[in-house]
Structures are given as structure tokens and as C-alpha cells.
Write a structure and sequence with these properties.
This protein has one helix and 13 strands, in the order αβββββββββββββ. By secondary structure, it is mainly β. The protein has two domains: 27 residues; 132 residues, Porin (Beta Barrel). The strands form two sheets. Strands 1, 2, 3, 4, 5, 6, 7, 8, 9, 10 and 11 form an eleven-stranded antiparallel beta sheet that branches. Strands 12-13 form a two-stranded antiparallel sheet. A hairpin with an 8-residue loop joins β2 and β3. 16% of the residues are buried.
């Protein structure tokens, strides 16, 4: 094997090992764009909240996904762009589509999500969680965003999302892997 080829193979092996160690030691949320899928633990809630407790209350299943992309990383937290919101819920016999984008921030013990959403044929509206205690471990996101601050009659998306499964394929060389969704 000539010297140039030996150097190329050595650099390639070192790069592969370095990336493997870096990826395994980094928290999942610190990596590049990630697709998140909603779980059955979340939903769309419409009705009365404190202090206006009225008998109107709907809790509907919410399905779909969104893209989370890191904007900045700090020692105690991170900021993300939320894009490609593609959700839906069924109300009566009608499927209501929800689309939009926004941002998500997380620090050591708090997080906040603000989304500009189009719900069905309605106008774009801002849903905000406010800054709330972080009750779960990343990479899962469990947070509720409301149109009216969770006050009286409100529209709430109770978001329970986890990273979409990643499929891996191994090359014929055995040491190189690629991931895709």
C-alpha cells in the first residue's frame, strides 16, 4: 500500500472513530435537525380552565410530527427552531389539520415552546406554554401550549413527542453507518 493511500485510510478510520465517540457522548437534543413524532400521551384540549370552570371540555387525540433544529447551544441550555408542524385531530367527523412553526428553548430545569399555528381554515395564531418546569428528560418533549394562557375558555395542544425512530444501514465495509428517516 502506498503512503498516500495508507494516510487516507488512517484519517478515515480516525474520523469515523471520533464521530462515533462524539455522537455517543452527546445528548440527542444537541445534534442536528431531528424529526419528532407525537405520542398518544398528548392531545388537543378545548374547554374551560380555571377560574371559569364550565361544563364544556373536549380532549381529542392529536397525531403528527414536527422538525426540531438546533439554533444555539449554551452550557446550561439550548434554543431550537420548530418547523414542519404537521398535526391533525378528529372533531366529530371532520379531520382538522394543524400546521405551523415556532421555537423551543430548554435550560437545566425549565423549558418553553411558542408556536404560530394554523388550525383548520382559521387564521395563524400564537400558542405559548410560558416558561414551565422541565419534568421529563430530553430527548422527549412534554409540554402544553395554549392560545389564551390556560385561562377560562382556551384551546390547548398538549404535546407529547419523542424523536422519530432512526434506521441504520451498515456498509459492506462494516464500519461505516448511515442514518435515514
Amino acid at each position: 500500500m502506498n503512503r498516500t493511500r495508507r494516510t487516507f485510510v488512517t484519517v478515515g478510520v480516525l474520523l469515523t472513530l471520533t464521530l462515533s465517540v462524539a455522537l455517543e457522548s452527546s445528548p440527542t437534543w444537541a445534534l442536528g435537525p431531528s424529526l419528532y413524532e407525537l405520542t398518544d400521551d398528548g392531545g388537543y384540549v378545548e374547554g374551560c380552565f380555571d377560574p371559569c370552570m364550565c361544563p364544556i371540555f373536549m380532549n381529542l387525540t392529536l397525531q403528527g410530527s414536527f422538525q426540531l433544529t438546533s439554533v444555539s447551544q449554551e452550557t446550561d441550555g439550548a434554543h431550537f427552531e420548530v418547523t414542519a408542524v404537521d398535526w391533525q385531530f378528529v372533531m366529530g367527523e371532520e379531520i382538522i389539520a394543524v400546521t405551523g412553526s415556532g421555537h423551543y428553548q430548554i435550560d437545566s430545569d425549565q423549558h418553553r415552546m411558542v408556536l404560530d399555528l394554523l388550525v383548520g381554515d382559521g387564521p395563524e395564531q400564537q400558542f405559548d406554554s410560558g416558561l414551565v418546569a422541565l419534568e421529563s428528560e430530553v430527548p422527549g418533549i412534554f409540554i402544553a401550549v395554549a392560545l389564551n394562557g390556560f385561562y377560562c375558555y382556551d384551546y390547548v395542544f398538549d404535546i407529547a413527542a419523542v424523536p422519530a425512530p432512526v434506521e441504520e444501514s451498515t456498509s459492506s465495509w462494516g464500519s461505516l453507518k448511515s442514518t435515514f428517516r
